[in-house]
Structure formats: structure tokens, C-alpha cells
User: What shape does this take?
Amino acid sequence: MKVETYIQSLFTPDDKEYGHITNKMIEIGMPTISVSPETGKLLTLLVKMSGAKKMLEIGALGGYSGICLLRGNEEGSLTSLELEEIYAKVAKKHIEEAGFNGRVEMKTGPALQSLKELEKENTEFDFFFIDADKENYVHYLDLCIKLSKPGSIITADNTLWSGEVLNEATTDKDTRALQAYNQKVAEDPRLESLLIPIGDGLTIARVK
Ligand code: SAH
Ligand code: MG
Assistant: This one.
């Protein structure tokens, strides 16, 4: 048995929302690239353990990761940034159907723009989840740090990129971007960080 299957069968055997959302996304022709249920559970646990209340995600897709974040705090709220108007609508619907009515605010359009607007409003968040276009990950990191406070958590998905990040000679743009992200998170003096090999890799960091 694969390690992944072992972990899934013990710790995330039956995530109904994951199944429901995946089926809906297939039905309407969306890509099925939500976080894995294990990554989702880790997000929930990280929110619970840190006591984070104000959460921000970059890349909503069908709403599954947003649900995992909101599961972590009964009093939590989520701001979710999504490029595609249609995906934002689908995500909002799924998040509300999951029982988190009134606790999510969607912001559509390029996330870089939305983040700059949030910066102007002087908004602060205590939990960040980066999971959109890989080429902008390093820029998202800088903007998230600006919107953070000491103790805030910054997480990012797909940071193993199916193991491709090990390929130092790669010329693939997304792979290069994820390598650059991991290196930046690892070396940034403002952060303490680690890459956790769960799902497709989740890099986690705490703002000093
Ligand atoms: N976090 C989701 C999966 C996100 S998939 C989950 O695990 O459930 C990546 C998402 O990022 C897609 O929905 C895509 O439309 C969005 N995206 C891509 N480029 C973006 C950009 N520049 N700004 C905001 N969202 C973007
Ligand atoms: Mg992802």
C-alpha cells in the first residue's frame, strides 16, 4: 500500500464535501485540482492549532480548500481571491452549502490587484493559503507578509509539483517558480518555515 493511501484511509476516510465538490466540478467542466483531503485536513488543523480567525486564500476554484480553512474556527472568516468570476460563484455556493453562510467574501480578478487593494485598506490576516498561478507565488508571499502580523501563518500548495522541484535543470516556468518560492520561504529572515511532503507538498511558514 502506498503511504498516501495508508494516511488517507486512516485519517481522511470520508470527506463528503470533497466528493460532492469534485463531482460538481466534473459536471460543469472545471479542472479537478482541489487540495487533497489530507492537505485539507492539515489546513484545518493548522487553523485550529494557531487559533487563526481572519483567513485569506488565493485561488478558490470550487471552494474545497476554503471549507477546510473555515472548518478550523467556528468564529473564523475567509476572504477568497479568485480570477474567474464563474469559479468564484461556484466556490461561494459550495462554501455556503457546507454551512459557512455569511463567513466568506469573494474577491474576483487578478489576486495581485486584490492584494494591493487589501494593503491600501490596512487589512490584517492571521492565516494565508496560496494556491493560484505558480508564477506569482513569490509576489504573493511578499504581499501576504505585508498583510500579516507576528505569528501569522503563510501556507502554499503544490510546492513539490509532483516531485518536479527536484529537477534542478528544468526549464518549465511553473517548476522554476515553485523552486524559487521554496527557496525564498526557506531563506527569508522574516519567516520560520518548512516544506511538508503531504499531498502535492505544503510549504508552511510563521511570520516572526
Ligand atoms: N484552492 C483550491 C484550488 C485552486 S486551483 C482548492 O484547493 O480547493 C487554482 C485557482 O487559482 C483556479 O481557480 C484559478 O482560476 C485561480 N487563479 C489562477 N490565476 C489567478 C490569479 N492571477 N488571481 C487569482 N486567482 C487565480
Ligand atoms: Mg493546489
User: Anything to note?
Assistant: The mean pLDDT is 97. The chain has one domain: 3-207.
